[in-house]
Structures are given as structure tokens and as C-alpha cells.
């Protein structure tokens, strides 16, 4: 007998924009989606089963990781039943329906690999940085001039990096050479003069405890950066650099990896800078 369809509790208006939900949808991890959905709505598995027209036992198995959702039909049922924005799941909009304004791409011309665009780095939720770092299993790449906000704003940032390499990940960290002309020019353009070089030295101090840790490479570069790049396995945050403005005031694009797209374009840029860099210590 099919499950009885029961009304679902109302969901918070920003549910689909919460960093943990954005991450779960991007990975098509329906177990995590259900866990987060139930946390913020209080919905029971029976209510979800009825709304999605699937057995309650399947809901339980999906939530607890014993069953993976691979069927397009089930993705469709869950999206329709729970009101999940369709595009983050890789589903086409239904005719006559409007995309979710925040979580979905606003038009067909926007590549599917773009998860979201933030107007400035300060608009990126702090928890998103942490969730992406915690979720990385193989690779963390950072290309910045200073990037002081990460170790300065997250007290356990260096400890998380250490934990990543202990679990088998490789970390490549590129900072601007504080003695380089590129850093001096960027400091002048931002109106902070040698303040940028000072910020780089502070970041190096934070990272110094990783100096002898296998799996961590910290290098210095002397290139003119046009974007800061933060890669966490198949996810990447790209922070634009704008003349006369600090990176913190400039837009950030959240990308997920696809074949031959923007992700690979920026990843190739990282590799080119890495090839010109030298060890920080």
C-alpha cells in the first residue's frame, strides 16, 4: 500500500540556501538533504514518504546511507514532494515553472557548474568555507596574496588542514612573496601600501606549524593575481580581484567540477602559478 500523503511542516524560507544544504544538493547527497530537511522542518519519515510517494523504509535507508538515489524518477519525486529547487540537482525546470531565485541558475545560458555567485567575499557564509574544507578528501589548493581571513577568522583552520593531511589529502598553499614587485603593486592599488606584505607575513606565521608536516607544501609566488582560487576536491571558490578594491569587497564564484568547464580553466591557472613558485621556508 502506498504511503499516506500527509501535509509537510513549513520549511524555513532560506532552507535551500543554507551552506550545508547547498553542499548536499551540489553533491546530490539525498541522505544529507533529508537529514538537513528534517532538522529544520521537523518532518517525519512517514510525512516525507507520503509527499514523495516512496515507501517509508526507502526514506529511512536513504537518510542513513544504506540506499543511494541514482534514479531520475526518484530525484524527481523528492524534488516535487519536498519543494527542492530542481537545477541544483541537475533537473530541468518543469514547463511554466520559475527557477528558485537563489540556489538555481537564473537562465539556461549560465553553466550548470556555477553553484552560486556572491557579490563579495564577506557574503560567503563562514560555514561554507568550513564545510568545503571538511568535505575535501584528496586535494586542497589555495592561491592568494595573503588570505589572512582564513587562519585569522577560523581559530581551528590550521588544525583542520593538519587533519586533512593526516587523512590522506594533499595541500598546496600559494602566498604572494612579500618582497616581490607584484605584492608591492597590489598593496599600492588597494591603498594599503606595505600592509599587504605584512598580512602575508602574518599568514606565514599562522601556517608555520605545518612546516614539517608531510603532505603540506607552502610556496611563495610573484605573479600578478587576477583571482584568488580556493579548491576543495571538486568544489572551488574563485574570488575576483578588482583594481583599487580589496579582494574581500569583490565577487566570489562557487564552482563545482564538470568536464572542460570553468573549474578546469581556473585549476589550470593555479597550476601555471604553482610552476613558477618557490618554497616559503
TrEMBL record:
PROSITE patterns (UniProt xref): HTH_CROC1 (PS50943)
Span of domain HTH cro/C1-type: 44-89
Record's protein name: Helix-turn-helix domain-containing protein
Top-rank lineage group of the source organism: Bacteria
Annotated region described as Disordered, given as residue ranges: 88-107
TM annotation in the entry: none
Pfam families on file: DUF5919, HTH_31
GO molecular function terms listed in the Swiss-Prot or TrEMBL record: DNA binding
Amino acid at each position: 500500500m502506498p504511503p499516506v500523503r500527509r501535509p509537510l511542516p513549513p520549511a524555513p524560507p532560506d532552507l535551500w540556501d543554507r551552506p550545508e544544504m547547498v553542499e548536499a544538493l551540489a553533491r546530490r547527497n539525498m541522505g544529507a538533504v533529508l537529514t538537513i530537511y528534517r532538522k529544520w522542518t521537523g518532518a517525519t519519515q512517514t510525512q516525507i514518504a507520503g509527499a514523495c510517494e516512496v515507501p517509508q523504509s526507502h526514506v529511512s535507508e536513504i537518510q542513513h546511507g544504506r540506499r543511494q538515489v541514482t534514479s531520475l524518477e526518484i530525484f524527481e519525486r523528492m524534488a516535487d514532494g519536498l519543494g527542492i529547487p530542481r537545477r541544483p540537482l541537475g533537473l530541468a525546470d518543469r514547463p511554466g515553472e520559475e527557477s528558485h531565485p537563489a540556489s538555481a541558475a537564473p537562465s539556461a545560458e549560465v553553466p550548470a557548474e556555477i553553484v552560486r555567485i556572491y557579490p563579495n567575499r564577506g557574503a560567503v557564509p563562514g560555514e561554507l568555507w568550513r564545510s568545503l574544507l571538511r568535505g575535501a578528501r584528496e586535494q586542497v589548493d589555495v592561491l592568494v596574496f595573503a588570505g589572512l581571513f582564513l587562519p585569522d577568522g577560523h581559530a581551528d583552520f590550521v588544525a583542520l588542514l593538519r587533519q586533512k593531511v593526516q587523512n590522506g589529502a594533499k595541500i598546496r598553499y600559494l602566498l604572494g612573496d612579500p618582497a616581490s614587485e607584484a605584492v608591492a603593486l597590489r598593496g599600492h592599488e588597494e591603498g594599503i601600501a606595505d600592509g599587504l606584505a605584512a598580512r602575508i607575513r602574518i599568514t606565514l606565521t599562522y601556517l608555520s606549524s605545518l612546516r614539517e608536516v608531510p603532505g603540506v607544501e607552502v610556496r611563495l609566488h610573484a605573479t600578478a593575481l587576477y583571482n584568488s582560487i580556493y579548491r576543495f576536491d571538486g568544489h572551488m571558490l574563485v574570488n575576483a580581484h578588482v583594481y583599487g578594491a580589496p579582494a574581500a569587497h569583490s565577487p566570489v564564484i562557487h564552482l563545482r567540477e564538470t568536464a572542460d568547464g570553468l573549474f578546469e580553466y581556473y585549476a589550470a591557472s593555479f597550476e601555471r602559478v604553482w610552476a613558477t613558485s618557490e618554497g616559503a621556508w
